[in-house]
Amino acid sequence: MANKFARKKYYDVATVDGLEQLDYLSFKWINFKKFLEGREVTQLKVTQDLEGRLDLVSADFYKDVFLWWIIALANDILDPVNDLTMGMSIIIPKTSDIEAFFQAIVSKRQQKGEVLLPRLTV
Is residue 15 part of a domain? Predict the structure, then answer.
């Protein structure tokens, strides 16, 4: 089953050292954390077994290890291995809010006349 929240659909592509990669730093025109303000989220205190493992957090909450990046985006985490530390409090957005956020992205990009096609095969 295709992942409707696949990162390649929402990030731009940058060429670094001749290789195409997802450009995580260009995703600043909509602030997910601000979008979540006032919405119901789950608070999680990171335990030792979850330290550096957003994939496990994602598996627990979304039943999908590949949605770790959404939790990272909601918590301004750029490096999940080093930035997710024991004792840290993070928020876990509801799937309905994730869908609403990404629908807003699609709408905004369509209004700008951008073509929304995946550019990478992962």
Answer: no
Residue 81 lies in a domain: yes
Indicate the number of domains in the chain.
Answer: 1
CA distance 63 to 60: 6
Whole-prediction pTM: 0.70
Q: Which long-range contacts (CB under 8 A, 24 or more apart) does 7-10 make?
A: 7/69, 8/118, 8/119, 8/120, 8/122, 9/116, 9/118, 10/102, 10/105
Question: Is 99 among the domain residues?
Answer: yes
Domain of 49 in residue numbering reads as 29-111
Report which of 31, 24, 43 is spatially closest to residue 93, judged by C-alpha positions. Answer: 43
- Give a yes or no: residue 75 inside a domain: yes
Beta bridge partners of 21: 14
The H-or-E segment that residue 41 falls in is: strand 41-45
Q: What are phi and psi of 86, to 5 degrees?
A: -55, 135
Could you give phi then psi for residue 40, rounded to 5 degrees? -75, 125
* SS3 state at 50: helix
Q: What's the pLDDT tens digit per position in 56-66?
A: 999 999 999 98
